[in-house]
Design a protein that fits this description.
The complex is a heterodimer of chains A (180) and B (121). Chain A has 180 residues and is mainly α. Chain A folds into two domains: 76 residues; 65 residues, no CATH class. Chain A has eight helices and no strands. In chain A, 21% of the residues are buried. The C terminus of chain A is likely disordered. With 121 residues, chain B is an all-alpha fold. Chain B has one domain: Helix Hairpins. The model of chain B has no long low-confidence stretch (mean pLDDT 86). Classes of the chains: A mainly alpha (180), B mainly alpha (121). At the A-B interface, helix 1, helix 2, helix 3, helix 4 and helix 5 of A face helix 1, helix 2 and helix 3 of B.
Chain lengths: 180, 121
Amino acid sequence: MAPLLVRGGSHRRFITIVRMRNLFGVVVLAGVYSFLMASVLIVYDAVDVAMTEAAVGAGVSTVLFLAALHLTKSMEYPAARPAAIPLIVSGIVGAALIWATYDLPPYGTAVAPIHQHIVPYYIENAVKDTLVPNLVSAILADYRGFDTLGETVVVFTAGIGVMLLLKGRRSTRKSEGRAP
Amino acid sequence: MEGLKNFFDHYNYVATIVLMVAGLYIVIARGNMIKKLVGLSLFQTSVYLLYIAPGKIIGGTPPILDPAIKVYSNPLPHVLILTAIVVGIATIALGLALVARIQEAYGTIEEDEIFGQDEPE
Protein backbone atom coordinates (compact mmCIF):
# COMPACT_ATOMS: atom_id res chain seq x y z
CA MET A 1 0.00 0.00 0.00
CA ALA A 2 2.78 2.43 0.86
CA PRO A 3 4.18 2.62 -2.68
CA LEU A 4 0.70 3.29 -4.03
CA LEU A 5 0.21 6.14 -1.57
CA VAL A 6 3.56 7.68 -2.44
CA ARG A 7 2.72 7.29 -6.12
CA GLY A 8 -0.62 9.02 -5.68
CA GLY A 9 1.04 11.90 -3.85
CA SER A 10 3.63 12.47 -6.54
CA HIS A 11 0.97 12.30 -9.27
CA ARG A 12 -1.20 14.96 -7.65
CA ARG A 13 1.96 17.06 -7.30
CA PHE A 14 2.83 16.93 -11.00
CA ILE A 15 -0.73 17.76 -12.10
CA THR A 16 -0.48 20.95 -10.05
CA ILE A 17 2.97 21.60 -11.54
CA VAL A 18 1.49 21.43 -15.05
CA ARG A 19 -1.43 23.77 -14.28
CA MET A 20 0.04 26.40 -11.96
CA ARG A 21 1.08 29.82 -13.27
CA ASN A 22 2.96 31.11 -10.24
CA LEU A 23 6.50 29.94 -10.99
CA PHE A 24 7.61 30.20 -7.37
CA GLY A 25 4.93 27.69 -6.43
CA VAL A 26 5.92 25.51 -9.37
CA VAL A 27 9.55 25.38 -8.21
CA VAL A 28 8.63 24.61 -4.59
CA LEU A 29 6.25 21.85 -5.73
CA ALA A 30 8.98 20.45 -7.97
CA GLY A 31 11.14 20.16 -4.83
CA VAL A 32 8.33 18.34 -2.98
CA TYR A 33 7.96 16.10 -6.03
CA SER A 34 11.67 15.26 -5.88
CA PHE A 35 11.35 14.16 -2.26
CA LEU A 36 8.41 11.94 -3.17
CA MET A 37 10.45 10.57 -6.08
CA ALA A 38 13.21 9.73 -3.60
CA SER A 39 10.64 7.76 -1.55
CA VAL A 40 9.59 5.84 -4.67
CA LEU A 41 13.24 5.06 -5.38
CA ILE A 42 13.63 3.63 -1.85
CA VAL A 43 10.68 1.34 -2.61
CA TYR A 44 12.66 0.25 -5.69
CA ASP A 45 15.67 -0.63 -3.43
CA ALA A 46 17.77 2.17 -4.98
CA VAL A 47 18.90 3.72 -1.71
CA ASP A 48 21.97 5.48 -3.12
CA VAL A 49 19.95 6.99 -5.95
CA ALA A 50 17.25 8.09 -3.50
CA MET A 51 19.82 9.86 -1.36
CA THR A 52 21.29 11.61 -4.41
CA GLU A 53 17.85 12.56 -5.69
CA ALA A 54 16.89 14.05 -2.32
CA ALA A 55 20.15 16.02 -2.11
CA VAL A 56 20.55 17.05 -5.76
CA GLY A 57 16.99 16.98 -7.11
CA ALA A 58 15.21 18.50 -4.12
CA GLY A 59 18.10 20.55 -2.75
CA VAL A 60 20.53 21.84 -5.34
CA SER A 61 18.14 22.10 -8.28
CA THR A 62 15.51 23.94 -6.19
CA VAL A 63 18.17 26.43 -5.14
CA LEU A 64 19.26 26.89 -8.76
CA PHE A 65 15.66 27.42 -9.93
CA LEU A 66 15.02 29.95 -7.15
CA ALA A 67 18.20 31.81 -8.11
CA ALA A 68 17.03 31.90 -11.72
CA LEU A 69 13.62 33.20 -10.60
CA HIS A 70 15.40 35.94 -8.69
CA LEU A 71 17.04 37.03 -11.96
CA THR A 72 13.80 36.83 -13.99
CA LYS A 73 10.07 37.14 -13.37
CA SER A 74 8.13 34.75 -11.17
CA MET A 75 4.81 34.94 -13.01
CA GLU A 76 3.94 33.04 -16.17
CA TYR A 77 1.55 34.64 -18.68
CA PRO A 78 -1.63 32.75 -19.48
CA ALA A 79 -1.00 30.53 -22.48
CA ALA A 80 -1.87 32.33 -25.70
CA ARG A 81 -1.11 29.35 -27.85
CA PRO A 82 -3.52 26.51 -28.55
CA ALA A 83 -3.04 23.46 -26.32
CA ALA A 84 -4.53 20.90 -28.72
CA ILE A 85 -1.44 19.98 -30.73
CA PRO A 86 0.87 19.42 -27.71
CA LEU A 87 -1.88 17.37 -26.09
CA ILE A 88 -2.25 15.17 -29.18
CA VAL A 89 1.52 14.75 -29.60
CA SER A 90 1.97 13.84 -25.92
CA GLY A 91 -0.96 11.46 -26.09
CA ILE A 92 0.44 9.61 -29.09
CA VAL A 93 3.94 9.42 -27.63
CA GLY A 94 2.56 8.20 -24.30
CA ALA A 95 0.36 5.55 -25.91
CA ALA A 96 3.27 4.28 -28.04
CA LEU A 97 5.56 4.08 -25.00
CA ILE A 98 2.97 2.30 -22.85
CA TRP A 99 2.37 -0.17 -25.69
CA ALA A 100 6.13 -0.77 -25.89
CA THR A 101 6.50 -1.43 -22.14
CA TYR A 102 4.29 -4.51 -22.43
CA ASP A 103 7.24 -6.24 -24.10
CA LEU A 104 9.32 -5.74 -20.94
CA PRO A 105 9.58 -8.58 -18.43
CA PRO A 106 7.04 -8.44 -15.58
CA TYR A 107 7.96 -6.18 -12.66
CA GLY A 108 10.11 -7.71 -9.92
CA THR A 109 10.96 -11.14 -11.35
CA ALA A 110 14.46 -12.50 -10.70
CA VAL A 111 14.66 -14.35 -14.05
CA ALA A 112 14.55 -11.18 -16.16
CA PRO A 113 17.52 -10.88 -18.60
CA ILE A 114 18.77 -7.74 -16.84
CA HIS A 115 19.73 -9.88 -13.81
CA GLN A 116 21.58 -12.56 -15.78
CA HIS A 117 24.25 -10.62 -17.64
CA ILE A 118 27.17 -9.18 -15.66
CA VAL A 119 25.59 -8.46 -12.29
CA PRO A 120 26.09 -12.00 -10.88
CA TYR A 121 29.83 -11.46 -11.42
CA TYR A 122 29.70 -8.18 -9.51
CA ILE A 123 27.78 -9.75 -6.62
CA GLU A 124 30.22 -12.68 -6.56
CA ASN A 125 33.49 -10.77 -6.75
CA ALA A 126 32.92 -7.18 -5.57
CA VAL A 127 34.32 -7.65 -2.08
CA LYS A 128 37.26 -9.68 -3.36
CA ASP A 129 38.11 -7.15 -6.12
CA THR A 130 37.39 -3.84 -4.43
CA LEU A 131 36.94 -4.49 -0.65
CA VAL A 132 33.72 -2.42 -0.80
CA PRO A 133 30.50 -4.15 0.38
CA ASN A 134 28.23 -1.51 -1.21
CA LEU A 135 27.88 -2.79 -4.77
CA VAL A 136 26.79 0.59 -6.14
CA SER A 137 29.95 2.27 -4.86
CA ALA A 138 32.10 -0.63 -6.07
CA ILE A 139 30.71 -0.44 -9.61
CA LEU A 140 30.59 3.36 -9.75
CA ALA A 141 34.11 4.02 -8.61
CA ASP A 142 35.89 0.85 -9.68
CA TYR A 143 34.37 -1.38 -12.37
CA ARG A 144 32.87 1.52 -14.30
CA GLY A 145 35.27 4.24 -13.19
CA PHE A 146 35.62 5.64 -16.69
CA ASP A 147 31.87 6.36 -16.74
CA THR A 148 32.36 8.47 -13.66
CA LEU A 149 35.32 10.20 -15.26
CA GLY A 150 33.12 11.05 -18.27
CA GLU A 151 30.45 12.32 -15.91
CA THR A 152 32.86 14.66 -14.17
CA VAL A 153 34.02 15.93 -17.59
CA VAL A 154 30.38 16.75 -18.44
CA VAL A 155 29.85 18.52 -15.12
CA PHE A 156 33.12 20.43 -15.58
CA THR A 157 32.10 21.53 -19.08
CA ALA A 158 28.68 22.62 -17.85
CA GLY A 159 30.36 24.59 -15.05
CA ILE A 160 32.58 26.37 -17.56
CA GLY A 161 29.50 27.10 -19.69
CA VAL A 162 27.57 28.59 -16.77
CA MET A 163 30.54 30.76 -15.78
CA LEU A 164 31.03 32.03 -19.34
CA LEU A 165 27.32 32.79 -19.71
CA LEU A 166 27.01 34.66 -16.44
CA LYS A 167 30.39 36.41 -16.51
CA GLY A 168 29.44 39.44 -18.60
CA ARG A 169 26.18 40.04 -16.79
CA ARG A 170 26.95 43.23 -14.90
CA SER A 171 28.54 45.03 -17.83
CA THR A 172 25.72 44.21 -20.25
CA ARG A 173 23.05 45.42 -17.87
CA LYS A 174 24.09 49.05 -18.48
CA SER A 175 23.71 48.67 -22.23
CA GLU A 176 20.23 47.20 -21.80
CA GLY A 177 17.56 48.73 -23.97
CA ARG A 178 18.13 46.76 -27.09
CA ALA A 179 15.44 47.90 -29.52
CA PRO A 180 12.35 45.73 -29.26
CA MET B 1 -7.72 -12.58 -17.20
CA GLU B 2 -4.37 -12.84 -18.95
CA GLY B 3 -4.66 -9.20 -20.03
CA LEU B 4 -5.44 -8.09 -16.47
CA LYS B 5 -2.41 -9.95 -15.10
CA ASN B 6 -0.29 -8.41 -17.85
CA PHE B 7 -1.55 -4.96 -16.84
CA PHE B 8 -0.69 -5.42 -13.17
CA ASP B 9 2.74 -6.78 -14.11
CA HIS B 10 3.47 -3.53 -15.93
CA TYR B 11 1.37 -0.79 -14.28
CA ASN B 12 4.46 0.79 -12.70
CA TYR B 13 5.72 1.50 -16.21
CA VAL B 14 2.37 3.05 -17.09
CA ALA B 15 2.69 5.43 -14.13
CA THR B 16 6.26 6.25 -15.16
CA ILE B 17 5.19 7.05 -18.70
CA VAL B 18 2.33 9.25 -17.52
CA LEU B 19 4.95 11.31 -15.67
CA MET B 20 7.16 11.34 -18.77
CA VAL B 21 4.32 12.55 -21.00
CA ALA B 22 3.44 15.28 -18.48
CA GLY B 23 7.02 16.56 -18.73
CA LEU B 24 6.89 16.38 -22.53
CA TYR B 25 3.58 18.30 -22.55
CA ILE B 26 5.05 21.11 -20.41
CA VAL B 27 8.09 21.36 -22.68
CA ILE B 28 5.96 21.62 -25.84
CA ALA B 29 2.92 23.56 -24.63
CA ARG B 30 4.31 26.20 -22.29
CA GLY B 31 6.16 29.26 -23.54
CA ASN B 32 7.80 30.24 -20.26
CA MET B 33 11.38 29.03 -20.25
CA ILE B 34 11.67 28.29 -16.51
CA LYS B 35 8.48 26.25 -16.76
CA LYS B 36 10.00 24.40 -19.72
CA LEU B 37 13.06 23.51 -17.62
CA VAL B 38 10.85 22.27 -14.76
CA GLY B 39 9.11 20.10 -17.36
CA LEU B 40 12.47 18.85 -18.57
CA SER B 41 13.48 17.83 -15.05
CA LEU B 42 10.10 16.10 -14.63
CA PHE B 43 10.90 14.14 -17.79
CA GLN B 44 14.35 13.27 -16.42
CA THR B 45 13.02 11.92 -13.13
CA SER B 46 10.61 9.69 -15.03
CA VAL B 47 13.55 8.30 -17.00
CA TYR B 48 15.20 7.47 -13.66
CA LEU B 49 12.12 5.44 -12.73
CA LEU B 50 12.08 3.71 -16.11
CA TYR B 51 15.67 2.60 -15.58
CA ILE B 52 15.45 1.66 -11.90
CA ALA B 53 12.17 -0.29 -12.00
CA PRO B 54 13.47 -3.31 -14.00
CA GLY B 55 16.35 -3.69 -11.51
CA LYS B 56 14.00 -4.35 -8.59
CA ILE B 57 13.53 -7.96 -7.51
CA ILE B 58 10.51 -8.57 -5.29
CA GLY B 59 11.92 -9.96 -2.03
CA GLY B 60 15.37 -8.54 -2.79
CA THR B 61 17.21 -6.01 -0.70
CA PRO B 62 19.26 -2.89 -1.54
CA PRO B 63 22.58 -4.04 -3.06
CA ILE B 64 24.82 -3.87 -0.01
CA LEU B 65 26.56 -7.20 0.56
CA ASP B 66 25.85 -9.03 3.78
CA PRO B 67 26.39 -12.73 4.58
CA ALA B 68 22.81 -13.04 5.86
CA ILE B 69 21.22 -11.98 2.56
CA LYS B 70 20.86 -13.99 -0.63
CA VAL B 71 18.86 -11.82 -3.06
CA TYR B 72 19.93 -8.33 -4.09
CA SER B 73 18.26 -5.89 -6.44
CA ASN B 74 20.29 -5.07 -9.55
CA PRO B 75 22.92 -2.40 -8.76
CA LEU B 76 23.84 -1.57 -12.37
CA PRO B 77 20.83 0.70 -13.17
CA HIS B 78 21.46 2.51 -9.88
CA VAL B 79 25.00 3.34 -10.97
CA LEU B 80 23.86 4.58 -14.39
CA ILE B 81 21.15 6.73 -12.87
CA LEU B 82 23.50 8.23 -10.27
CA THR B 83 25.53 9.47 -13.24
CA ALA B 84 22.36 10.66 -14.98
CA ILE B 85 21.19 12.67 -11.95
CA VAL B 86 24.45 14.58 -11.76
CA VAL B 87 24.58 15.19 -15.51
CA GLY B 88 20.91 16.25 -15.37
CA ILE B 89 21.56 18.91 -12.75
CA ALA B 90 24.51 20.17 -14.85
CA THR B 91 22.30 20.59 -17.93
CA ILE B 92 19.58 22.28 -15.85
CA ALA B 93 22.15 24.71 -14.48
CA LEU B 94 23.37 25.51 -17.99
CA GLY B 95 19.78 26.01 -19.17
CA LEU B 96 19.02 28.35 -16.27
CA ALA B 97 22.14 30.40 -17.03
CA LEU B 98 20.93 30.72 -20.63
CA VAL B 99 17.50 31.82 -19.34
CA ALA B 100 19.14 34.49 -17.21
CA ARG B 101 21.01 35.82 -20.26
CA ILE B 102 17.86 35.75 -22.40
CA GLN B 103 16.01 37.73 -19.73
CA GLU B 104 18.81 40.29 -19.89
CA ALA B 105 18.89 40.56 -23.68
CA TYR B 106 15.13 40.56 -24.32
CA GLY B 107 13.57 41.62 -21.01
CA THR B 108 11.32 38.56 -21.05
CA ILE B 109 11.48 34.76 -20.84
CA GLU B 110 8.21 34.10 -22.66
CA GLU B 111 9.01 32.36 -25.94
CA ASP B 112 6.22 34.05 -27.94
CA GLU B 113 7.41 37.56 -27.01
CA ILE B 114 11.01 36.66 -27.91
CA PHE B 115 9.91 35.42 -31.34
CA GLY B 116 7.90 38.65 -31.72
CA GLN B 117 10.97 40.76 -30.98
CA ASP B 118 13.12 38.79 -33.40
CA GLU B 119 10.79 39.19 -36.36
CA PRO B 120 11.96 41.84 -38.86
CA GLU B 121 9.86 44.99 -38.72
